[in-house]
């Protein structure tokens, strides 16, 4: 998750010189955060990087150094290639389908509409459910006999179309996408709605006075002003997809025949089920590098113009 | 807006609303059916209503223990991450010292670290520390991973508080600890609310960490319980639906009561364009 920091209303002057002994205070207040973060976030990532160069079952100290063999194996691994393909597919579907639908819905909810508050509340509700609960609920919904999904497709005359859902290697990834969309599109809708409502009335009033059509007003006023929010929501969506685990693990376990497996699921299988901790660490590093490189490039080239003090601006003493 | 487009608007909203609501209602009603009813009558109301599945689960103790574990872990995580995060954010917002930006950036980049990357070495580390099977093994990593978002949001908020407030407090003889505790934190209630919501939701929904830390079902949280229940009764759809419904209920109730704060909390931090 990334946070857009707005320029503070008041410029904070760092005139701390009058304080005689700031160091004990600094140390006292920072120590707990630093200790926990270093021990439980940074150290594990460093250890994962280290372990990725070893053949290691996770017990004792890694001794069997294999250099970059794990990474070489990873690049040649069909499963890993499949994980990447599926991640790209899900990213494409999210950006191409889920987010535009969210945007359209936010525009709808911005209209004067009776019960708008109730709709808003309903659309957002799945976001508060855990991925596991959502996944178990949908496992039942996709169940071949008693599930809701097949009854619905039969009802609207598509009886044979979606009969298999999670059991078919061709459909499972799309079923997974449906569940992800069900859970998360309301979140994106709400982001867009909040941004839409912060656009001053005057702009649209002026456009209407000038005779702009609804589409023109959307295209030339709303959309550009929503730009920053859309770019953030794309960012969150991509990072979320790259790191997908809970939903897949519970919904399909990566199956059938690994056709819905994601990077994190493969890592979990290798590390916790087969005790190939070295190899699993290499997969961890791949997830980490993909997230980090994407995150930094995205911030550098896409978010840069939006953000005052983006999370990675270094050395910007303000 | 003319009448036609208003009707169309309502239709689309209702349709989308239905796709959200129907699965949840299917779960709630399904818990009152038996498997025969689910097969023959998937859409309608239960006939007859069979509360047995719900009553069994509510009387079993396992459900309550899991809900209690989830709640306790969420509260402990939230108190710790907000407290520790606020202390650090205060320093990052108000004190200039060499290396501050580098240190803050390290925390901020932590926003992009997924649990999944660190989970293997974290497991090994927790094993060495003897924290497997201990709620601290879940709470402390959750706090550590929650620090980035907490610190980034709170630092932004703390910076907006005029320095005059701190100066006058200092003139009145308040030290930094006193200022932080008595003035800064009470002034920051909205931001503390936001980060608390994020921490509670994150902890309540966490799955991977409890999964690897808790072997003993005594400590299981609701997500673990739901998944275990699903594999145990895999053939009994109605019973699983009842369990899922009961597991959804706390989150949905909480959401119904605190919708406004929760939504504004989540959207204010993120992407206000």
UniProtKB/TrEMBL annotation, chain A:
Annotated ranges, domain ABC transmembrane type-1: 84-298
Keyword hit for Ribonucleoprotein: no
Top-rank lineage group of the source organism: Bacteria
Transmembrane domains' residue ranges: 88-109, 121-142, 172-194, 234-257, 277-298
Alphabetized Gene3D superfamilies for the sequence: MetI-like
PROSITE patterns: ABC_TM1 (PS50928)
Localization in the cell: Cell membrane
Membrane topology summary: Multi-pass membrane protein
Keyword vocabulary terms for this entry: Cell membrane, Membrane, Transmembrane, Transmembrane helix, Transport
SUPFAM superfamilies in alphabetical order: MetI-like (SSF161098)
PANTHER family documented for this protein: ABC TRANSPORTER PERMEASE PROTEIN (PTHR30193), INNER MEMBRANE ABC TRANSPORTER PERMEASE PROTEIN YCJO (PTHR30193:SF37)
Annotated family: Belongs to the binding-protein-dependent transport system permease family.
Name the record gives this protein: Raffinose/stachyose/melibiose transport system permease protein
Source organism: Catenuloplanes nepalensis
Lineage summary: Bacteria, Bacillati, Actinomycetota, Actinomycetes, Micromonosporales
UniProtKB/TrEMBL annotation, chain B:
Keywords assigned: Cell membrane, Membrane, Transmembrane, Transmembrane helix, Transport
CDD domains found in the cross-reference section: TM_PBP2
Domain ABC transmembrane type-1, first and last residues per copy: 67-258
Main subcellular location: membrane
Keyword Flavoprotein: no
Membrane topology: Multi-pass membrane protein
Endpoints of the signal sequence: none
Subcellular location: Cell membrane
Annotated InterPro entries: MetI-like (IPR000515), MetI-like_sf (IPR035906)
Domain of life: Bacteria
A matching Pfam family: BPD_transp_1
Transmembrane segments: 7-32, 71-93, 102-126, 138-158, 240-258
Family indicated by similarity: Belongs to the binding-protein-dependent transport system permease family.
Name of the molecule in the record: Raffinose/stachyose/melibiose transport system permease protein
Organism: Catenuloplanes nepalensis
């Amino acid at each position: 998750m990334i946070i857009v920091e707005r320029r503070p209303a008041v410029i904070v002057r760092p005139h701390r010189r009058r304080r005689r002994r700031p160091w004990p205070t600094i140390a006292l207040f920072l120590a707990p955060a630093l200790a926990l973060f270093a021990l439980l976030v940074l150290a594990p990532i460093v250890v994962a990087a280290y372990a990725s160069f070893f053949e290691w079952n996770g017990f004792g100290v890694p001794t069997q150094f294999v250099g970059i063999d794990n990474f070489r194996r990873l690049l040649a691994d069909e499963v890993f290639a499949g994980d990447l393909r599926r991640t790209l597919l899900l990213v494409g579907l999210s950006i191409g389908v889920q987010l535009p639908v969210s945007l359209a819905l936010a525009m709808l909810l911005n209209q004067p509409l009776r019960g708008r508050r109730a709709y808003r509340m309903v659309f957002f509700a799945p976001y508060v459910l855990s991925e596991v609960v959502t996944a178990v609920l949908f496992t039942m919904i996709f169940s071949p006999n008693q599930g809701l999904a097949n009854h619905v497709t039969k009802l609207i005359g598509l009886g044979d179309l979606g009969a298999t859902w999670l059991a078919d290697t061709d459909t499972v990834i799309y079923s997974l996408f449906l569940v992800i969309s069900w859970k998360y599109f309301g979140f994106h809708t709400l982001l867009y709605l909040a941004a839409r409502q912060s656009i001053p009335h005057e702009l649209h009033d002026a456009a209407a006075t000038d005779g702009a059509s609804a589409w023109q007003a959307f295209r030339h006023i709303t959309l550009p002003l929503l730009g920053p929010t859309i770019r953030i929501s794309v960012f969150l969506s991509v990072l979320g997809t790259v790191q997908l685990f809970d939903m897949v693990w519970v919904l399909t376990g990566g199956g059938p025949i690994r056709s819905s497996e994601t990077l994190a699921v493969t890592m979990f299988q290798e590390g916790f089920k087969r005790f190939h901790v070295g190899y699993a660490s290499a997969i961890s590093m791949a997830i980490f590098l993909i997230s980090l490189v994407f995150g930094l490039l995205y911030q550098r080239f896409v978010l840069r113009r939006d953000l005052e003090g983006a999370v990675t601006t270094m050395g910007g003493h303000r | 807006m003319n009448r036609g487009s208003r009707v169309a608007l309502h239709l689309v909203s209702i349709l989308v609303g239905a796709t959200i609501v129907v699965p949840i209602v299917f779960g709630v009603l399904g818990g009152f059916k038996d498997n025969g009813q689910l097969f023959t009558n998937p859409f309608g109301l239960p006939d007859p209503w069979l509360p047995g599945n719900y009553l069994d689960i509510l009387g079993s103790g396992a459900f309550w223990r899991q809900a209690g574990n989830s709640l306790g872990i969420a509260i402990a995580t939230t108190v710790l991450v907000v407290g520790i995060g606020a202390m650090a954010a205060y320093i990052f917002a108000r004190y200039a010292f060499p290396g501050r930006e580098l240190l803050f950036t390290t925390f901020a980049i932590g926003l992009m670290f997924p649990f999944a990357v660190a989970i293997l070495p974290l497991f090994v580390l927790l094993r060495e520390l003897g924290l497997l099977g201990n709620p601290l093994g879940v709470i402390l990593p959750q706090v550590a991973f929650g620090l980035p978002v907490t610190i980034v949001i709170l630092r932004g908020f703390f910076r907006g508080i005029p320095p005059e407030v701190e100066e006058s407090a200092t003139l009145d003889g308040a030290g930094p600890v006193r200022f932080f505790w008595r003035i800064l934190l009470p002034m920051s209630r909205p931001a503390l609310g936001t980060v608390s919501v994020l921490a509670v939701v994150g902890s309540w929904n966490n799955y991977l960490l409890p999964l690897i830390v808790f072997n003993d079902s005594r400590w299981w949280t609701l997500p673990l319980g739901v998944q275990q229940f699903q594999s145990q009764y895999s053939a009994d759809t109605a019973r699983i639906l009842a369990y899922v419904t009961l597991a959804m209920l706390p989150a949905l109730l909480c959401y119904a009561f605190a919708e406004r704060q929760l939504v504004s909390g989540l959207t204010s931090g993120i992407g206000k364009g």
